[in-house]
């Protein structure tokens, strides 16, 4: 960490074999955008970059262990991957995925920067099929249960929509045929679950998510 410079993204590189680790670390070491740390300084890493051949059970155990023990966001450099493996990696917090064949220093720095900002990166050919998988899950599993991918139930969205329209608790209760206590409980549950400060913050969140 001694060589780190202000403004650089602190990155830990891991791999299933030492040659891969040395290769990727060598590509990144000269880049001014990042500062590399070893496992002994892993707690200060903002991004952990993991090099694997595929997301098999062995790799998944490592990804889950990283998720449990680190606050860093994850980038996966991988030889081959399909939609299911992509979903498994995302569940472990690895929201950036780069195929080895495309892992130039420029691409790696681009993806590391995106992930450090909380953005995801997925190979273009997998994005469409991943969105189809998400759509199927919403339509076949979550939708019938009245739940959306954002974790909000249909009635929670309806309450937020009415709050945004300027209705108070009594009016919302009357419109939706709930008690005022139920409306208050719904709003409290939403704000607690999503770490929202107040009703205005909850409405702003719903607007940003395109829910209302």
UniProtKB/TrEMBL annotation:
Identify the residues that the record assigns to the HTH luxR-type domain, covering every copy: 145-210
Q: Does the keyword Transcription apply?
A: yes
Please tell me whether the keyword Cytoplasm is annotated for this protein. Answer: no
Q: Enumerate the PROSITE patterns for this protein.
A: HTH_LUXR_1, HTH_LUXR_2
Q: Which CDD domains match?
A: LuxR_C_like
A single GO molecular-function term is: DNA binding
Q: Show the InterPro entries listed in the entry.
A: Sig_transdc_resp-reg_C-effctor, Tscrpt_reg_LuxR_C, WalR-like
* Keyword vocabulary terms for this entry: DNA-binding, Transcription, Transcription regulation
> A Pfam family name for this chain?
GerE
User: Which PANTHER family does this UniProt record tie to the protein?
Assistant: TRANSCRIPTIONAL REGULATORY PROTEIN NARL-RELATED, TWO-COMPONENT RESPONSE REGULATOR
Indicate what this protein is called per its UniProt record. Answer: DNA-binding NarL/FixJ family response regulator
What species does this protein belong to?
A: Streptomyces syringium
